[in-house]
Design goal:
261 residues, two-stranded antiparallel ribbon, 9 helices, binds retinal
Length: 261
């Protein structure tokens, strides 16, 4: 199918189109709002959090423009359990662009927690591994088993990210004095991020319990919470508490918290 035909196919499905356009609109509004919120921020660490977080809606508007234009979607012969293969519209651009947006979310969270470079690097590279292997899972057509093997590799990367979020950064955030906001954002992130592999498994890429349009809406709604709402909460706090972020002294390779022993 040509890109023009894919574009027509998407435009003809009103609900699917709306799941894309709603995010383009929200990403656009978020970009304007976040630039405005950051206009007076002067502390360099707070500015870095702003830039990283601003990248999230910037990547998002690009991602959804790719989807709605037919550039980053395609019909793929997906093997399903039971032996059959079905041609399904796969939004592979989502997995590709997550490799750019989710590292920004984690970098911003790590900076907020006052984490050291080692932990931020670990979270970011595991996260990129998760997105790229998720893309491989979505595009593998040769074997059902290997499709799911990619999925489980991606889940393993994902668990490493969750580990850093749940067991490493909370202690750092306590030392940095950002515990309260970090706790809120951590919970929001962990809960919403678990939604993605669940909907992948249920959707047209996985077990085909949900249609492509339903899967797309699931991702689009998760995106609204995990990106724009998350970013708004984070930036509102950072703009109001620049001095706390400014007094964080960690950021090198060492541990932000003193060793336990
Ligand atoms: C996939 C499928 C394979 C297994 C796992 C996945 C996890 C995806 C996640 C995505 C988060 C995306 C966000 C985007 C915001 O821009 C790739 C669906 C574990 C956690 C927050």
């Amino acid at each position: 199918m040509t890109q023009g035909e894919l574009f027509q196919e998407i435009a003809a499905n009103q609900s699917l189109s709306l799941s894309f356009w709603s995010n383009i609109a929200l990403a656009g509004l978020s970009i304007l709002l976040f630039v405005y919120m950051g206009r007076n921020v002067e502390d360099p660490r707070s500015q870095l959090i702003f830039v990283a977080t601003l990248m999230v809606p910037l990547v998002s508007i690009s991602s959804y423009t790719g989807l709605v234009s037919g550039l980053t979607v395609g019909f793929v012969d997906v093997p399903y359990p039971g032996g059959g293969t079905e041609e399904a519209l796969i939004m592979w651009g989502r997995y590709l662009t997550w490799a750019f947006s989710t590292p920004m979310i984690l970098t911003a969270l790590g900076l907020l927690a006052g984490s050291n470079l080692t932990k931020i690097f670990t979270a970011v590279v595991m996260d990129i591994g998760m997105c790229v292997t998720g893309l491989a899972a979505a595009l593998t057509t040769s074997s059902l088993a290997l499709r799911w093997f990619w999925y489980f590799i991606s889940c393993a990367f994902f668990l490493a990210v969750i580990y850093v979020l749940l067991y490493e950064w909370p202690d750092d955030a306590a030392a940095a004095g950002t515990s309260e906001i970090f706790g809120t954002l951590k919970t929001l992130t962990v809960v919403l991020w678990f939604g993605y592999p669940i909907f992948w498994a249920l959707g047209s890429e996985g077990l085909n319990v949900l249609t492509t349009t339903q899967t797309s809406w699931a991702y689009s709604l998760l995106d609204i919470g995990a990106k724009y709402f998350f970013a708004y909460l984070l930036l509102r706090w950072v703009a109001a508490n620049e001095s706390i972020i400014g007094s964080v002294t960690s950021g090198g390779l060492g541990s932000a918290t003193p060793a336990d022993d």
